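Colleagues,

Please find the record for the two-part complex below.
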Amino acid sequence: MDKLLNIALPKGRLGEKVYAMFEAAGFDCPSIKEPGRKLIFENEATGVRYFWVKPSDVAIYVERGAADIGVAGKDILLEYEPDVYELHDLAIGKCRMAVAAKKDFRDNRARTLRVATKFTNIALKYYNSVGRDIDIIHLNGSIELAPILGLSDVIVDIVETGATLKENDLTVVEEIVPISARLIANKAGYRFKTEQINGLVKKMREM
Amino acid sequence: MNESSFAGKNLSSELCGLYGSYGYVRYKMNKFEEYDLYARNKDFLVADSVITFTDTNGKLMALKPDVTLSIAKNCRDAAGEVNKLYYDENVYRVSKGTNSFKEIRQLGVECTGEIDDYCILEVLSLALKSLQAISPECALDVSELSVISGILDGCDLTASQKRELLKRIGEKNLHELQALCEAADMAAETVSLLKTLVASYGKPSDVLPVLKTLLPGHPGLARLETLTGALGSDAVRIDFSLVSDMSYYNGVVFKGYVGGLPESVVSGGQYDRLMEKMKHTSCAVGFAVYLDLLEGFAAPSAAYDADVLLLYGKADSPAKVLAAAQKLTAEGKTVCVRKNVPAKLRYKAVVDLTEGGACHG
């Protein structure tokens, strides 16, 4: 079996921050900083192999065992519910999953609430927990448009600073759950690379 | 690759032989079961969806999504007796990835009746041998549910709080476990103990002595020590994050993993609570081996479709072609007989009967 620890990193700014944390913890891989389009980098000396993947795909790589560990946003973990271990909250990429609506929105409980979102599962679970009947409108982007154009009453989306909402005359109505980047591990991979994974998690927790 | 063979072995017959050698009797089942059985025990099933149809007598039937429920239903309680069964059946479940129904080959062992620790040890040992038959690189993780449930039952928790805590325990999610325990006003020592249990993972000889100092005299830990000691294998680990559904399972539960496979290939434990729900006085322990997970794994794809491509023409009589093919197979070669060279066939050599049997390497 492959002895290197396979680590799926989310492409983009968050992934770069995460790599910096791994590097500071002693799991560096200098080739990752070389310019180019390469996606896989390994360093036998530190026993790691990194690969860049689309942030929403990290959990799939880890659940399916292509990566032993990875870093995924809590939003992705709540939405797709992959069967993985969630070993550490890296406390970076912090934001919140929230319900937002037009500033003059008032919930009329006499009718079904129309909710536009990318996060169908999170929205369904949230409204189920508060006993509200909803109609889900699944969108893939520009969610903020939905209430402005009357497509939905509210949206369920990630809110970081709230600037996009403000610019579109929307406001947070309810906070659902705080979001941050989490270190996840494949359940089977954990069995066979226990010391490597526990060692890495320990160092990350000490940071 | 056939799903019942792994790394060139016929795994299912090897495992059936193993279970038979310990006196387990083959249990052959009907493909269908009344839907009501699954509707009443939905939480026991791995996936919610079941393929249903109306039988000729109007009864709503289902294609079996699970074998254990049927065995538990048909179990006969008799004082002092133990029934040992194994099965090799197809079940029908929704595959997580495709969200469509899939036929899954499942092999397993069930032991019902007056179950004692020997029966549990025997089942654990068979689970371990099953894993070792699949791959020498394997791990059998064992837990005793009474250890975690004892702690949770001692706290004043609502059903939803307990469910959320068990979810975090199963994820080894210590940061959220801590937050939930604090929100539930659990004592700091209890939270610390719970976190230590969940974080502990390793060989029984490393893990159990530490835990025994935290939970002195706990019968669950003593039981684990006895059972894992008797198994005496480096592949056995203790893992308290194994929290199978406690409304069905109790006591010893376990999962088995093999290197290179992303999920557990063996899963089992004691399910006395399921038996109670079905009004049985018997206890039960068993496990399933998910053969479908082995499909397409570890077998390198063959470099060639055939050793020899045997070409013949219109002038060659069928008897001559057959004799040439038989000669090659008798030499232990695989042969593919064609009139023309197939576009995608990969072969090592060509024997062309139109050229008098000339061989091109």
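Chain A touches chain B through 20 residues (CB under 8 Å).

Comments are welcome before we finalize the supplementary table.
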